[in-house]
User: Which sequence fits this backbone?
């Protein structure tokens, strides 16, 4: 409500701004998280009948998360490092400006322990991978 009190705008201008802001932010956040979790190579484990996932926490993060556009400094700035979801999941309390350095260690460790390190080089490669994954899910769903 602060903009209504401070700015010289009407209630309907405020409402339009409020809706546009939330639609844009919702689409942006949805897209970021889809490109980080619903792409080729990521796993979608099913819990046991007891509701447990049968892998270690860090291993689960590696298998279910992907990075995209990691060499794009503009993407890293505007997304606050969320394009490096693997490092974000493994080190949530570390500032995102360190994710690039950390990624070198994470990649090396993943290779050492035979764990996936899923990465799409560009935003559009991640978008394509997301589309391919959704098509695969759609085809699987129509067979059921």
Assistant:
């Amino acid at each position: 409500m602060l903009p209504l009190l401070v700015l010289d705008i009407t209630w309907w201008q405020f409402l339009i701004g409020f809706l546009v802001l939330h639609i844009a932010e919702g689409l942006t956040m949805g897209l970021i998280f889809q490109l980080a979790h619903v792409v080729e190579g990521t796993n979608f484990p099913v819990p046991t009948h007891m509701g447990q996932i049968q892998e270690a926490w860090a291993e689960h993060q590696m298998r279910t998360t992907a990075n995209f556009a990691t060499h794009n400094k503009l993407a890293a700035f505007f997304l606050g490092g969320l394009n490096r979801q693997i490092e974000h999941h493994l080190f949530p309390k570390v500032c995102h400006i360190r994710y690039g350095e950390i990624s070198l260690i994470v990649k090396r460790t993943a290779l050492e322990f035979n764990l996936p390190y899923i990465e799409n080089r560009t935003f559009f490669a991640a978008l394509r991978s997301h589309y391919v994954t959704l098509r695969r899910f759609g085809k699987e769903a129509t067979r059921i």
Notes: The longest strand covers residues 66-68.
